[in-house]
Fold this sequence. Notes:
This protein has a 5-stranded parallel sheet with strand order 3-2-4-1-5, with helices on both faces. The chain has helices at residues 17-25, 34-43, 62-70, 91-100, 112-120, 139-144, 160-167, 191-200, 222-233, 237-248, 252-260; strands at residues 2-5, 28-31, 50-52, 75-77, 104-107, 127-132, 150-155, 172-177, 185-190, 207-211. The chain starts with a strand and ends in a 12-residue tail after the last helix. It is built from 11 helices and 10 strands. With 272 residues, it is of the alpha/beta class. It folds into 3 domains: 2-110, Tetrapyrrole methylase, N-terminal domain (Cobalt-precorrin-4 Transmethylase, domain 1, 3-Layer(aba) Sandwich); 113-211, Tetrapyrrole methylase, C-terminal domain (Methyltransferase, Cobalt-precorrin-4 Transmethylase, Domain 2); 222-270, no CATH class. Helix content is 38%, strand content 17%. The model is unreliable at 262-272 (pLDDT under 50). Bound molecules: S-adenosylmethionine. The site of S-adenosylmethionine has 21 residues, from β8 and β10. S-adenosylmethionine (SAM) binds at residues 9-10, 79, 81-83, 86-88, 111-112, 154, 176-181, 206-208.
Amino acid sequence: MLFIVSTPIGNLEDISQRALDTLRAVDAILCEDTRRSLILLQRYGIEKSLHPYHKFLEKAQLQKILSALREGKNLALISDAGTPCINDPGQILVSACIEEGIEISAIPGPCSLIQALVLSGFDTTRFQFLGFLPKKGKKPLQEALGYPGTTIAFESPQRLVHTLEAIGPNRRVAIAREMTKTFEEVRRGMAPDLAKHFKQHPPKGEVVLIIEEGPLPDDLELDELIAMLRKWHGLSLKEAIKLAAKCKQIPKRLVYRKTTRGPDEHTERDSI
Ligand code: SAM
């Protein structure tokens, strides 16, 4: 049987009794970085064989792990911090186990994106998680801003200011940094204000970015706006054109004309 065990995201006290019992009981533990996991195991006096299972080994080790599980071995999967499979290795193994009818169980515990969402104070009823934002290009972020709910993303401290600036002026954001650790900080505010703050006080450590639902970015091209309205709000082309015309405060017929023409026919004057 495979146990997917969540481990602390900073504070080593944040581990459940059931997680510790499971780590003690299994035949072996699969982990990302053996040195890092050893710190946790030593803290709780757990002596168990640790086997590296990081993103470069995920596929290569799959058959070996599956055959151990088929033989009846009990294995635990942990990551460096938080919940395995969430931007950490595990999903390939879990889906292979499901396909092969191998029993799995998840032992719940810390997960930074959920912790950050809770701390943000933003709507928790509908949210999307983007993982790490791509290093290049504004498009994924711009598109995400059309989502009708809260958006959560991982971001590196070095890129935080740049991302906050790209979010634009009209969004409330929360930054959850170093959660559960000594220098835990949660800062909430409008994106430009937070950008200014973090420019003056460069952030260190691990960061989760939470963006509250809000108005669409002002600088979207007409085509982008229509695509976004269709994607996130499930509107027909006709409905999206009507709404886009209202947002951009231009006559509907003009929007029709622009969107039904091929891209080559667009002129400089066309960009809205
Ligand atoms: N599986 C992990 C989880 O469940 O939280 C996430 C792993 S992902 C590779 C690492 C990212 O999670 C970090 O770059 C940061 O964005 C976020 N993170 C993890 N621990 C954190 C913490 N204590 N405070 C803030 N962000 C954290």
